[in-house]
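Sharing a chain and its predicted structure for anyone who wants a worked example. Both blocks are below, sequence first, tokens second.
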Amino acid sequence: MSKGSFKRTKLRLNASELQRELEDSDAALMEAVVAGCALVAYSDGWVSPEETLRMRSLILRFEPAKALGLAEILRLFEEMTLSFADNFETGEQAALELVSRLAGRRRECDLLIDTCCGIADADGGFDAEERETILKLCTMLQVEPETHGL
């Protein structure tokens, strides 16, 4: 696995900035962000403890997380990552379906990509597989990768 460097961009927000941006969002957004995080975390074939901790620290501070609840968010993340282990193609398709619900919601798509970049960097840098997954999400959501330092 080759590591790349994490480049902070103007769009890359810290947890408190993301929370403010997401305060008016909904449960569908939280499900999409958790699914995107799971896709990126599992893209190299396993989920590191650092990736799980980063997902928790970012996601669980968001106001919309209160709508789903801590237990539900953690359950969804675990369910998504376990589904990849059982059958990667089926798990990936389910996660992409959740993410695709954000199509056309520019601000939410940018936040999802920023959050996924934070997950990718949780263990010290972007792996090639993580970068490829994020680029796939950018294409699907019609987000310019360059605006996120990719």
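Comments welcome. Residues 1-11 have pLDDT under 50 and may be disordered.
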